[in-house]
Design brief:
The structure holds 2 protein chains of 2 kinds. The mean pLDDT of chain A is 97. In chain A, the strands form 2 sheets. Chain A has a 9-stranded mixed β-sheet with strand order 3-2-4-7-1-8-11-10-9, sandwiched between helices. Chain A is an alpha/beta fold. Chain B is 6% helix and 31% strand. Chain B is mainly beta. In chain B, the strands form 2 sheets. A 5-stranded mixed barrel of chain B has the order 4-5-6-8-7. In chain B, strands 2-1-3 form a 3-stranded antiparallel β-sheet. Chain B is built from 1 helix and 8 strands. The chains are: A alpha/beta, B mainly beta. At the A-B interface, helix 4, helix 5 and strand 5 of A face strand 4, strand 5 and strand 6 of B.
Chain lengths: 381, 142
């Protein structure tokens, strides 16, 4: 049995929601259920992810939405590595008969509440960072970016290309937080936050929620939206993934993240070559992870991602549209749940003014550094 | 590898923090730092040097270790310059954190101190003379 995504839902993305996380979570989940043409009583599984208890548990959503019974419930303690992983787990649960229809959501007051960018991540590896002031997520990704850019012969021009290409997509996206065009001059004049990152290289934190509905392909075919078929999913932590979400002392190569480790398995399982993917939604908490993801997945050659983007190849008229909602950089930091939702909308042909011309297959990633997940979605043909 | 763009300037702000989150596994490492010693665990069965300190060796599975003192010399694998405050940590101005590949093998994070310029591959050495207690600092080898 194959599984598919049948609907997506959002609550508004804002900088200050003045709402509870539960209120936003249930709004997005109810919207996703309705989008799929279902009722809460049709849903028997709920799953989500959270960092340091910044969200509400799956059972709370099931309770508020009045689901008669929960056959699958999961709160995953992960950040941006989780969305594709949770979709894959939902698909597996459906394929093995544990549940019929499963919500996957991310909900948080990520701007007005606990901000991930300011979290000093605890864990068994924290002592090796805390005394140094090496405590913020931007610093860890920047540490990787310095090595990656130097080893691949790329630099600030390539980061800038990512920021500008994605902002161009966001201009017409009503959900996006950053919708003003970004010029090269503005980019260059923005101050360094953590070298090599300037403000436009960093995601913008938001309050909000996003959800998708996973069910069997058979059932999805009877629902109003075209199914986004889950061809393959993969989670991977490579050798020495660390003692906690921030520990990278045991990871040998800061120029290759989880995408390099799961690429072969993912595309083999999907029955596609990387070159056959028509568009990509690449996790982008920072610009550098787009370069690393495109190269890690083999969508471009090593060291070629920045030039590929600067040439316009990832734009709406390019060979491989990438991050068609403006990405986390511009739409907002829903930790990659909105990255998944955008992929679904594109596959379904609901991409608004940013609908890509060829939308029968895409690859989606979740995560930035040691571990993460990815999936291949296709249309039902 | 392109190097000219990866040069940074001086080390920046002094260390104000002390390590937080030291647990039963890492206590020996940080106790060593307070004595100006850079200590690792060496698996007695396979010889692997462990940093961070771990409860068992990932290579051979042994929990039998010797404590070994390292020279405190190494090479910069990567670096990051923090240009503005990102959280509630005390802020005294920009500073640089290094990922150092120690000559004996293991990798460690450290603050850059002194006035040297660093880039990828720069040789550095532990400097215990001006640190906050229990915080590892390296300076450029001149």
């Amino acid at each position: 049995m194959t599984a598919a995504i049948a609907g997506v839902g959002f609550s508004p993305f804002t900088r200050e929601s003045r709402r509870s996380v539960l209120s936003q979570a249930t709004e997005a989940c109810a919207a996703a259920i309705a989008d799929a043409g279902l009722r809460p009583a049709d849903v028997d599984g709920v799953s989500c992810f959270m960092l340091l208890n910044d969200s509400v548990p799956a059972v709370s959503v099931a309770t508020v939405l009045g689901m008669p019974q929960l056959r699958y419930g999961l709160d995953l303690q992960l950040g941006g590595q989780a969305p594709c992983y949770l979709v894959g787990l939902a698909a597996a649960a459906i394929e093995t008969g544990m549940a019929d229809t499963i919500l996957v959501y991310r909900a948080l007051n990520g701007r007005s509440g606990a901000r991930v960018g300011a979290m000093p991540f605890p864990g068994p590896g924290a002592a090796y960072r805390s005394g140094l002031g090496y405590t913020a997520y931007a610093m860890f990704v920047a540490m990787w970016a310095q090595r990656f850019l130097a080893e691949t012969g790329q630099g600030s021009d390539d980061l800038r290309a990512v920021a500008m290409a994605q902002r161009a997509y966001a201009i017409d996206n009503p959900r996006a937080i950053r919708r003003q065009p970004l010029s090269a001059e503005e980019y260059d004049n923005s101050p360094l936050v953590v070298d090599p990152f300037r403000a436009p290289d960093c995601t913008t934190e938001v309050d909000g929620a996003c959800a998708v509905v996973v069910t069997s392909l058979e059932r999805a075919r009877d629902l109003p939206r075209p199914p986004a078929v889950i061809r393959a999913t993969s989670y991977r932590g490579g050798h020495g993934s660390g003692l906690d979400i921030a520990d990278h002392l045991e990871w040998a190569d800061y120029t290759r993240n989880y995408t390099s480790w799961l690429r072969d398995d993912l595309f083999r399982a999907a029955g596609l070559a990387p070159s056959e993917v028509q568009f990509a939604e690449i996790y982008d908490c920072f610009t550098s992870t787009v370069l690393m993801g495109l190269e890690g997945l083999g969508l471009v050659g090593r060291g070629e991602a920045g030039a590929f983007i600067a040439q316009g190849q990832t734009g709406i008229d390019g060979d491989l549209p990438v991050n068609t909602n403006g990405g986390l950089l511009a739409e907002g930091y829903l930790h990659g749940m909105n990255t998944v939702a955008e992929a679904v909308l594109q596959i379904q042909g609901r991409g608004r003014n940013q609908q890509v011309a060829r939308h029968d297959s895409c690859v989606v990633t979740s995560g930035a550094l040691m571990d993460g997940s990815a999936m291949v979605l296709t249309s039902d043909c | 590898m392109r190097k000219p763009d990866t040069i940074v300037e001086r080390a920046g702000a002094p260390v104000l923090s002390v390590p937080r989150g030291v647990d039963e596994d890492s206590a020996g490492f940080f106790a060593g730092l307070t004595r100006d010693e850079l200590l690792v665990l060496e698996s007695t069965s396979c010889g692997t040097l462990l940093l961070p300190w771990l409860p068992r060796c990932p290579i051979c599975g042994s929990s039998e270790f010797r404590i070994r003192r390292l020279a405190g010399t190494g090479t910069v694998y990567s670096w990051v310059r923090v240009c503005r405050p990102l959280n509630d940590e005390p802020w005294q101005g920009p500073f640089t954190v290094l990922t150092v590949d120690l000559d004996e093998g293991p990798r460690i994070f450290a603050r850059l101190v002194g006035s040297g310029r660093v880039g990828l591959g720069t040789r550095v050495i532990a400097d215990y003379s001006r640190g906050a207690e229990g915080v590892l600092q390296f300076e450029v080898v001149t």
